[in-house]
Amino acid sequence: DSGVTQTPKHLITATGQRVTLRCSPRSGDLSVYWYQQSLDQGLQFLIQYYNGEERAKGNILERFSAQQFPDLHSELNLSSLELGDSALYFCASSQAGPQVVAGELFFGEGSRLTVL
Amino acid sequence: AQSVTQLDSHVSVSEGTPVLLRCNYSSSYSPSLFWYVQHPNKGLQLLLKYTSAATLVKGINGFEAEFKKSETSFHLTKPSAHMSDAAEYFCVVSVQPSGTYKYIFGTGTRLKVLA
Questions:
Q1: pLDDT of B91 higher than 70
Q2: What CA–CA distance (Å, rounded) separates A69 from A71?
Q3: β-bridge partners, A29
Q4: Distance in Å, alpha carbon of A99 to nearest chain B alpha carbon
Q5: Within 13 Å, how many C-alpha atoms sit on residue A95's CB side?
Q6: How large is the average pLDDT for residues A69-83?
């Protein structure tokens, strides 16, 4: 058990809909990272938050947004869903921050999104 | 620019034989290096990490990796493969170009273990 909790584990929805994925980081970790994993694109970095602030953006579509709340949990919002958004979405947390030496990422079990 | 190259997308070995998964990196900064394993429909689990201490790093489940700066490599090895080692393996570089850490993932190597 990594200590990172993601909900829901599975989600099936239709094109055009909007979903929210939730992540609770490991206790004490201030950084949260979101990744998308699909068969054709592999593991893609989407976005990182550190202590409530956005720190880095990767290949995140404009239809997607995220935030990190004061209690450090994070949500990834996916809107106007397309078939190609079907993927496994991972959240990871770490202690890494501007003044902290990089440690490992701790991954949740993922949220599998199926868009029909 | 930083990058990670996993030289083999698929590796097949027989049970009981050695495993070698190759990883090369490129970094302008002093990197931290990691190997992760992902079993089907599971999250990624840390196998081992290098953070500028000993160059030979031992991890879980009998895996180890050696950091070779001159070759910019961080290959993952195991003396004897087990059926349960069948999974996808990711090599990861962490660098801090400006105030925040970036984690750069390789494209993964799928390990198949034959009975």
A1: yes
A2: 5
A3: none
A4: 8
A5: 8
A6: 97
Q: Sheet holding A19-24: strands in order across?
A: A5-7, A19-24, A74-78, A64-68
Is the per-residue pLDDT at A15 higher than 60? yes
Task: Please count the CA atoms within 13 angstroms of the CA of B74 that sit on its side-chain side.
Answer: 31
- Spell out the alpha helix ranges (H) of B1-115: none
Measured between beta carbons, which residues in chain A are less than 8 angstroms from residue B32?
A: 101-102
Average pLDDT of the residues in B35-54? 90
Q: In chain B, which residues have their Cβ closer than 8 Å to the Cβ of A97?
A: 100-101
Structure-token pair, residue A107:
């991954």
Q: Nearest chain A Cα to B31, which residue?
A: A102
**Looking at residues A1-24, what average pLDDT do you find?**
96
Indicate left, alpha or beta for A16 from its phi (over 0: left) and psi (-120 to 50: alpha): left
What do you get for the CA distance between the two ends of chain B, in Å? 41
Distances (CA, A) of A83 to A17, A86, B20, B72, B112: 11, 6, 37, 39, 30
The pLDDT of residue B99 is 63
Contacts of B25 (CB under 8 A, 6+ apart): B2, B3, B4, B5, B31, B33, B72, B73, B74, B91, B93
